[in-house]
Amino acid sequence: MIKGNGNGSYVDLIAQKHPKSAAAEAYRTLRTNLGFAAPDHPARLIMATSAGPGDGKTSTMSNLAVVLAQTGQNVCLVDCDLRKPRIHKVFEIDNTRGLTNVLLQNAVLDEVIIPAETAGLFLFPSGPIPPNPAELIGSEKIKDLWPQLLERYDYVLVDAPPVLAVTDASLLAGQMDGVILIVKSGTSRVDMIQDAKAQLVKANSRILGVVLNQVRMSQKDYSYYYYYHGKSKEDQIRL
User: Fold this and answer.
1) Backbone angles phi, psi at 188, to 5 degrees
2) What's the rounded Cα separation, in Å, for the pair 11 and 5?
3) Which of 6, 37, 172, 197 is most deeply buried (CB count within 10 A of its CB)?
4) At a CB cut-off of 8 Å and minimum separation 6, what does 231 contact?
5) How many whole angstroms separate alpha carbon 236 and alpha carbon 79?
6) 161 — phi, psi (to 5°)?
7) Which residues contact 215 (CB under 8 A, 6 or more apart)?
8) Is residue 64 a contact partner of residue 27, using CB atoms and an 8 Å limit?
9) What is the pLDDT of residues 66-107, one digit of tens each?
10) Running DSSP on this structure, what letter comes out for residue 130?
11) Integer angstrom CA distances of residue 99 from 77, 102, 104, 116
């Protein structure tokens, strides 16, 4: 559960920019819960999707990538939203070369994967938007890519499009070790969430859990958090 102040604003990289904030702690909790979700069969190749756009999946995966890297893990964050990519905007990196160059032009991984500011985190942008995203996402080339990345990194996190909007997420879901469904508090419709889950199940994916995003956080909740973390009112970061 990722908490905010309910006004719809948030910092994309809160875990990097404000690591002692309540929201950053929520992402660390998510990191811990992933370990509990599948202790016998650890998930290293993990995709995030949502029922519809604007639910915070890119922000969630970006921050999860940061907190995983902060534990000393090598993490690769892959932008598989080949229609409306955002990873390059969140991290403010170049997107002229990326995943589509690897799939279509046999570009070398070392030429397109970019080290992030956080040590141990590597960014794999989408590259130029192709005319045929679904065909690329369902291709044998992308299926062959995952073992290569898993040889290099402890975790590979995949940011995918909304599952109900296009077929891309369903095609990807079955290729993953696990899938996280992102739900935005107060705006995601229950019937759409149920349809999204059904679509993922139909794709033979392993659903690790649901992240409830943008939850309104009361002053009482803040008080509990900062009591245990020793922060004064002046140091509090409001989301």
Assistant:
1) -70, 125
2) 12
3) 172
4) 20
5) 32
6) -70, 170
7) 1, 2, 3, 4, 185
8) yes
9) 999 999 999 999 999 999 999 999 999 999 999 999 999 999
10) P
11) 11, 5, 9, 17
Q: Give alpha helix (H) positions in the chain.
A: 14-17, 22-37, 57-69, 87-91, 99-105, 109-112, 133-137, 140-152, 168-173, 190-202, 219-229
Q: What Cα–Cα distance (Å) separates residue 131 from each residue in 86, 100, 163, 165?
A: 18, 11, 19, 17
Q: Tell me how far the alpha carbon of residue 192 is from its chain's centroid.
A: 20
* Domain assignments of the chain as residue spans, ordered by start: 3-229
At 66, list the tokens: 């940061």
pLDDT tens digits along 19-72: 888 888 989 999 998 887 766 778 999 999 998 888 889 999 999 999 999 999
- Please give the Cα distance from 130 to 136 (Å, whole number): 9
